[in-house]
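Assemble and predict.
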Amino acid sequence: MDDGDPAEDPSPDRQRARERSFRLLLSALAALFLTFAALGGALAWYDSANRWVAHTHQVRSNISDILQALTDGESAQRGYLLTRDPQFLRQAAASRAVAEAKAKALESLTRDNREQQRRVLILSQAMRARLDVLERTLELGRAGDVAGAVRVIQGGEGLAAMAVVRALTVELDATEARLEADRAARAAAVRALMITALVAFALILGWLFVKMNRDIGLDRDAEADRAERLRALVQQRTLLIDEVNHRVKNSLQQIASVVRLQARALPAGEARDALDKTLQRIMAVGRVHERLYKAEGQFGVFDGGAYAAALAHELVESLAREDIELSTDVESVDVDSRQAAPLALILNELVTNALKYGCPSDRPGKIHVGFRTFGDGYRLSVSDEGDGLPKNFSASSKKSLGMRAIEALARQLDGRLLIEPGPGGATFAVEFPRSVT
Amino acid sequence: MSMRIIVVEDDALIALDIASLLEDLGHEVCAEAADACTAWKLAEDEKPDLAVVDIRLARNTDGGWLARKLYDKLGVRSLFVSGSITEDFRRDMAAINPVGFLGKPVTRRNLGAMLGAA
């Protein structure tokens, strides 16, 4: 498939590779999206697990606060009974307030766990019993009945309530400690999951980056390869065109050589004149080819004005008549290359005729060649300053080969031949439209 | 000024035509060859004043190589006649002081003008 047109679409193989790579990219993006969502979920989960750990922690600290408040109350009781200092009464009241507030908070904190709620309820009752005993002893103490207060204490009601409180706090705390450990373990698991998801995310991103980089590199290589093939193709075609041009010119030379050799072999006369004319026509076409080829890289355009001037000069000079003055009025315009050869042949005939009939050999002559844009097309004109055309001249009546050729070539150009017979010199003009491509 | 000229052209009829044109112009064609090797041997014997050389010659030989050798060894200048004269070729040959480069087809007038300037 090496000789396929390199400008065509990428090969099916490449097309398939591209599609595969596109599908891969899509799935990678989907994976990225899923990982991202998982990461978000894990984050929310981790947050809630952490909240639960903090909650357990709070429950445990409340339990220890209650115990502390009760112990403080007992200390205040002892202090008051020993010293009768009212500041211990205030301390006892404060401890009670703290204990009750904490108990209330604990009740609401353990609302999620019926087992614990039950324990908290018992704890609260025991706590209140203990506080009531404290209250009673302090009342007795304030009334001056310290002995009565001591009796109440010795009654052991307070101690029993306190024992219940201690037992329950230990139970509650143990349960909460277990919960806390469980919840911490879960939080750790969630954290591990999150880290895994993050690493996956980073890995997918990294892989995507590497893959896209490689794809871009491959694409660049393919482009370079294609550009190289195009360059080679252009070079190959240029060589081909050079070769064809060379052959065309060589063939024209062969034809010209044969005609010239034949003409030389003939004695001066009609036959030799005819061959000379033929040679001249071959050369006119040869010149067109040379000019077309010289417009390097720009095939299909042909400077009509420059060609007209050059051919006219060449034809006039080939006669070796010093007394003929040639003037040109040409515009440099690009004519379609398909119009070049007929234009060249018409010009060749018109100039040859003007030299032959418009420049009598007994006096100096003048020839004027014009080539200009004219309306939507061009006008080629050749004038002489001879005696003008005979009265009965008309292109159709005369029917020399030259005139018939001019008419036919003008038709080929979709143009028309105009004849201004003089006096004071004839003018032949061909007007033809720009070629429609 | 009449010169002794060697014509090196692989197409027989074109060679004949060019030789006739040169004779018409008053020169003497002292040798004709279709390839560079034959041309070199003939030139060594004939010592021409000038060579008219096609670029692509018979047996895949190269007119540029011949012209270079003619100039370097014998001091003979060349007039190139070819259907394909590139700018590169003109630059390559500038060193051997060619008489000129003439595109095909050749007319009597432009051949005469080139030789007149030699």
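Chain A touches chain B at residues 242, 245-250, 252-258, 260-261, 264, 282-283, 286, 290, 314, 317-318 (CB under 8 Å).
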